[in-house]
């Protein structure tokens, strides 16, 4: 993967789910609601001064959300941060940079 370029979409892993779970409360606070279903489906990564994770998350019924989560460099010792999200997505919507 090139620095600055996003990877191809890949099926979510247990690590991807853990990342999504860690920022779930941040998303719930921004949306003003809780999500009973919160399952990572697929993801892309982008190397910057840390790593951006673009994660497609199933939030129940036929609803999906796209998350952009930033993981800082290890020596910075900072928590994961929800840097953005897109709601009203479908299972077939492509993960893109936002």
From TrEMBL:
Q: Which SMART domains match?
A: CY
- Could you tell me the keywords of this UniProt record? Acetylation, Cytoplasm, Protease inhibitor, Thiol protease inhibitor
InterPro entries on file:
Cystatin_dom, Cystatin_sf, Prot_inh_cystat_CS, Prot_inh_stefin
Q: Where is the Cystatin domain?
A: 1-98
Protein location: Cytoplasm
Q: Which domain of life is it from?
A: Eukaryota
Q: Which PROSITE patterns match?
A: CYSTATIN
One Pfam family cited in the UniProt record for this chain: Cystatin
Q: What residue spans carry the region label Disordered?
A: 1-20
Any one Gene Ontology MF annotation carried by this entry is: cysteine-type endopeptidase inhibitor activity
GO CC term, one of those recorded = cytosol
Major subcellular location class: cytoplasm
The entry's family comment says: Belongs to the cystatin family.
The protein's name is Cystatin domain-containing protein
